Amino acid sequence: MNTTYDVKLGAIQHRTDRDTPLFIARWRVGGKPKSKSFRTKGLANAFMSDLRQAAKTGEEFDLATGLPVSMLASASSGPTFFEFAQAYVLRRWSTSAPRTRETDAYALLSLVPALVADAPRRPAAEDLREVLRTYALIPEKRRPALTTTQTAALGWLERASLPLSELKEPHVLRTGLAAISVTFAGTPAGANTVRRKRAVLHHLLEHAVEEKAFGSNPLDEIKWTAPKAVTVVDPRTVVNPIQARQLLDAVPKVGRRRGPRLRALFACIYYAALRPEEAADLRLANCMLPQTGWGLIVLEKARPQATKRWTDSGQTHEPRNLKHRADKETREIPIPPVLVAMLREHVAEFGTTKDGRIFSTRTGGTYSSSAHSYVWQEARKLALTPAQVASSLAARPYDLRHAAVSLWLNAGVPAPEVAKRAGHSVDVLLRVYAKCMDGQQEQINGKINDALDT
């Protein structure tokens, strides 16, 4: 490498003769002109400031590239982690669900600011996360104009991010694992959060292996144990049929509009074990509601809630395929007469939306998860004792689904049929609801005794 101390910094030229304006930083190294283009003036200023700082401290400049030696190392070692992470998210955008996009980005909000060099003038942590969340990790056509603060934060990340190749070093990976193990406030993160973020990092590195950046996934060689996450339903959250009816009867008493409109939706979660997002997209055409006897729901879509920036439409709710189902695959759930009657009464009173949805706000929108939660918590106060309200009993609307599946299993419905109705695989069903299958211990003990006596 040929280096020199002969450095003269020039000005920033603003080019407006192109479709996209450019800001060109110009300087000379060893008498030879050098230049670098940027999308914004802020990035160009930040780059020139780095050159000025390197020259001021007496650092050598490379004659070939015109960069200080400290900047040359990162420039010549392939993509940075930040660059690769951006490409990873945007490459998966069109095939990922909004919540998956949000999960990927949420993990990278911890990882990208952590996997950086000790560069000067580091912006505040929240500024780094903000520019990642609102600009760098979404498609270019959806990016807003950058503020001055965001421009500085983005420029710093582009300069300070470690080369992707450095993630083969155990100490670098452990820095990333440490970052995902705490919240943004610095407190220990929940086990499920840590495991999800580690899964994103592992999958990102699998992509790097595919692109020949690594021979194997370097994360597999790190002796690091993720915290244990709770994967089974807590029986204390499960209501019995009497409690469920009391809660559903209390829901219409909450508010003038929300409660009455949400009673049948909550009933679908309990009597048909629908997920809340499945109930949100339930349409009259999906239902067989005879005047007497059992009915049938044929689910086609779900309507999950996500932050607007991660959805395709820019709306908080979008129709999606059913969870763990292929495109256009449906799920059939026979429903008892009590739910048939509730749905008939609901449609008679509130009608449907233009697209046939049974559950909606007065203006045809979709109730948010916070609206569900508010109505449910108020209903719990009306239907349960103070001690029960303070407990985890039916703490969330989703716990009605757990109560439904537990009821079916304990009623003796074969596990494959329960799994089919609930939209689970049998192995997941039995693992998740293992602690909720009561009333079988004496029968099982009797079978063991019979075997021992033979």
Automatic annotation (TrEMBL):
PROSITE patterns: TYR_RECOMBINASE
Single GO MF annotation: DNA binding
Coiled-coil spans in chain: none
Tagged with keyword Phosphoprotein: no
Pfam families noted in UniProt: Phage_integrase
GO term, biological process aspect, one: DNA integration
Alphabetically ordered keywords of this record: DNA recombination
InterPro entries: DNA_brk_join_enz, Integrase-like_cat_sf, Integrase_catalytic, Tyrosine_recombinase_XerCD
Keyword Phosphoprotein among UniProt keywords: no
Name listed for the protein in its UniProt record: Tyrosine-type recombinase/integrase
Organism the protein comes from: Nonomuraea phyllanthi
